[in-house]
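Limitations
The structure tokens in this dataset are predictions for the assembled complex, not deposited experimental models. Users should treat interface geometry with appropriate caution, especially where small molecules or nucleic acid strands are included. An illustrative entry is reproduced here so readers can see what is and is not provided.
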Amino acid sequence: MSITNLTAAAQMTTTRRTFIKVTTLAGAGFIVGCGESPPVTSRLPAAAAPTGPVAFNAFVKIGADNKVTAIIKHLDKGQGITTGLSTLIAEELDAAWDQMVAEFAPADTAKYANLSLGLQGTGGSSSVANSWLQYRKAAAAARAMLVQAAAAQWKVAADSIMVADGVLSAPGGHKATFGELAAAAGAIAPPAEPTLKDPSSFKLIGKHVPRLDSPAKTTGKAVYTLDKTVPGMLVAVVAHAPKFGAKVASFDATKTRTLPGVVDVVQIPTGVAVLADGYWTALKGREALTVRWDESGAEKRGSAELLAEYKALAGKPGLVALNSGDTAAALGNAKKKLAGDFEFPYLAHASMEPMNCIVALQADECEIWTGSQFQTFDQQKAAAITGLKLEQIKINTLFAGGSFGRRAVPDSDYIAEAVTIAKAIEGRAPVKLQWSREDDMRAGRYRPMHFHRLAGGIDANGDITAWMQTIIGQSLVKGTALEAFLMKDGIDSSSVEGAGTPYAIPNQRIEAQHPEVGVPVLWWRSVGHTHTAFATEVFLDELVAAAGKDPVEVRRALLKDHPRHLGVLNLAVEKAGWGTPLPKGRGRGVAVHESFGSFVAEVAEVTVKSDGTFSVDRVVCAVDCGIAVNPDVVRAQMEGGIGYGLSAALREQITLVNGAVQQSNFTDYLALRINEMPVVEVHIVPSTEAPSGVGEPGLPPLAPAVANAIRSVTGKPIRRLPLGERVAV
Amino acid sequence: MSVSFTLNGVAVQHDGDPAMPLLWFVRERQHLTGSKFGCGVAMCGACTMHLEGTPIRTCVTPVSAVEGKSVTTIEGLNSPASNAVQTAWRELDVVQCGYCQSGQIMAATALLTQNSAPTDADIDTAMRGNLCRCATYHRIRAAIHTAAKTLAG
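Predicted assembly:
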């Protein structure tokens, strides 16, 4: 980049300074609160806010303005964790809900690790589960400090003090708000083991609490990375390789450099970056580029070749993931045998906000703004690229416009690309990397394509005696920092999770193989369960049908030692009216699956027409996720998991031809629209167990329930996803 | 060549490339960021604004196309229909990630302005251009019916 260009860019952006100042003050990072008035005071820099909020610990701040800030260590990508964690804080503090605001935690693994993962990050539907005690204890400690401060001021016994709705009171007419006591209370040493409430006295947990982010997200005020601006910032758009593993051979940016708004063009390992004064100008600059690619090291196989290879692999012995009894003998002795091959495509996450990241690189600091989902890895990666120390990498987590797993990347792909661009221009301007939808769709990190081969045996009584399953698909973690934790004896647990039915089948054998393919893969909402639940629940139904039995009755019998599975199954079938007559062409299907510590059963009702077109009309869902911290958010996550799962089941697929991805945008990656959304009813099983996940568990039972419903009408097995426009009739 | 139009009731002027999509002019030059970029090809509706009250996909609308006209973004919404829609969205906690919701609210507001008592089929027709990957569709439908009831008094 030339000095002249940079100066011009700097001048150009200076005209925006006034605006930026205002917006960065009013919208720095992330602010959500109840009501319309922006709670700015607690977020202003100290100089502008003489009475800054008092930090009681890493999770709770209370301002003189009486606002209680919950510090949210997890990314909120729609799952509602800002509301969930703020509820835990408000509950144990006895705060009023309308005094709660939330702010995302900085990257600081020591303080903000996910206690389930051992790193700062959001995934595995673990956010509430791992924070359940930690956040409550933090708030209970802050409450105890407020009580002590009041006791000292009022010269009364601490146990005579009542706390309710953000107000402390004591006999004798004493009364004070949290805000009034914050400064004094913050100076008191926190109790070692704060006392937690008994669940019977919960006022907010398990009750209806409105989402904290609804006001900002219904007025366009919520700040996503797309919306964030940093003074002097340039927007970068990258010309990416047409195939995975291809590299830039040469490029010509002569024309690009003449375009108005274009400031610089730099080559980086992942392509050629055009930096400009805005997204549109950068995009025009990219269109004017000529790039020659070296495809010698690229993956050139297509989906058809991969499937053929996977099928061949399935005929060979694999690594044993599970083995009980003697499956080969049981199959040999079976009265009836059934075999089936199941196929699953690559899937893109296709979150609404295409990946993006802002980086301001200086000699001694690298500041990042993005919807960071793995802060620990993102921080480490930025440090490795820039040569800075970990503590010099500052990450500001912003709202993410969806993720579904896409932003939790062990090698921080798009964040690393943004940092690399900032480094390539030697930090002379902050850089916002913005992917187009096409970039996002073709960047890989897909749910890996899978092939399952199943065989089952039924004895003379119609009981299932043998279950043999071979799973072929790329490992999600091989070669990443997570390999050591998630791979055992060559088997990636995140790829086979959910396989090995909970059902009391005496002989079961699960084998797996992880072929090497040059298509980058990643977790995708509910991970291994996306395919294992389908193969299991659909093939089980086929065996049940072959035995001439009822799918619900058989499941009940096989799950008699699994009360939580049984609980959701019974609730879902009861609410769905299982067994009641349906008009011709309509059918019901059921599936039940445990994932991420939660249990979900779904009954789908479908209509199949004589030409094979079909619709999914109704889905009844029962979930047992332990204590439902926010029942309405639990319902929303089940609805969302059902919709996202249905979208994939109907038409989503990424296909490759000669290594090139065929899909590019929502024109050919066909996502669910409102006219196809079924009626969804969600029922929550009352529970006193500790909370477990809800972001993912609603998804796995959906596709098998739909497939089972369709087969109940057509009698034809469904073993391939997506279903497409028509099914065999 | 410069383009002049009214944005949320305020006269604005664009002196750059008239082919620049309205979305980017509004977001990057007018600093109104409520309207989102989702696809760039009019397939997702995240960029929806109103042109003379009609919902349009601004990621494919050149600024030149709105010369002399009136454009409204989510920041400029203020009508009985929009108030009913935004209130219903909050009552039902429709949002999840929220990224598409400006576009959903613009589309729903336009629908209810034209048709104060839409059927499910009307909702499908008016809203099917707006993608929501969180699949909040179930609540969007319910919220539109709720808003319609509010408008009916």
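Some entries come with short summary sentences. For this one: Chain A touches chain B through 65 residues (CB under 8 Å).
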